[in-house]
Design brief:
Blueprint (H helix, E strand, L loop, with lengths): L8 E19 L2 E2 L8 E14 L4 E20 L3 E19 L4 E20 L5 E19 L4 E17 L7 E17 L1
Antiparallel strand pairs: 1-2, 1-3, 1-9, 3-4, 4-5, 5-6, 6-7, 7-8, 8-9
Length: 193
């Protein structure tokens, strides 16, 4: 997302990234039982935004991203059946602040986070049931970009996201409010224009 300009100014940017994410559900901030799935898996994303380089080497930026995700887990309970949880996409709109170190840019980031999740139960007897929901919350993270060419950089980043609570209707029971949190580590290629 960072393109080191020849002079102070702005740099529009676009990027693609791959990474790994792992998440957990909770009820009112408390962990769910051990038999509940804890999804983990790969993601592939794109983003775009703009950076503003100030005279003192500070780089301010804003960016939006969206990632396809295959972050899933299935847990089987002996005698009861199985439960599967999946996060199939996640995104964010965030700001960041960094320091132009010449060939590298360390930065911090924070903003709005969104993720889509589904939960499915398959009992041994009787019909299964499933529901999905979109969670909206916040994210914070840190990373560093390294210059590869004049317009290309490599971005290594970590982000923690609390996607907030969402209601799931599972079977005949009343809707359950579940929180979702996730960690993600990504490697990206960023192009500046």
């Amino acid at each position: 997302m960072w393109s080191r300009p020849a002079a102070t100014g702005t740099a529009p940017l676009s990027a693609c990234s791959v990474g790994y994410a792992w998440g957990a559900y909770n009820v009112d901030g408390d962990a769910v039982p051990d038999w509940f799935p804890e999804p983990a898996g790969w993601l592939l994303g794109v983003n775009g935004g703009v950076n503003f380089t100030l005279d003192n080497g500070i780089v301010l930026g804003v960016a939006g991203d969206i990632a396809w995700a295959d972050v899933t887990d299935t847990v089987t309970q002996l005698g009861l059946g199985s439960a599967t949880a999946t996060i199939d996409w996640m995104g964010s709109l965030s700001g960041r602040i960094g320091f132009d170190g010449g060939t590298f840019l360390p930065y911090l980031t924070a903003g709005l986070a969104v993720a889509h999740s589904s939960i499915e139960f398959t009992p041994l007897l009787g019909p299964g049931f499933a529901d999905d929901a979109t969670h909206v919350g916040w994210t914070v993270g840190a990373g560093v970009e390294f210059t590869a060419t004049e317009n290309l950089s490599v971005d290594l980043a970590y982000r923690y996201s609390d996607y907030g609570d969402a209601d799931y209707t599972l079977g005949a029971a009343p809707p359950s409010s579940l929180g979702l949190t996730a960690h993600q580590v990504t490697v990206g290629l960023n192009w500046g224009f």
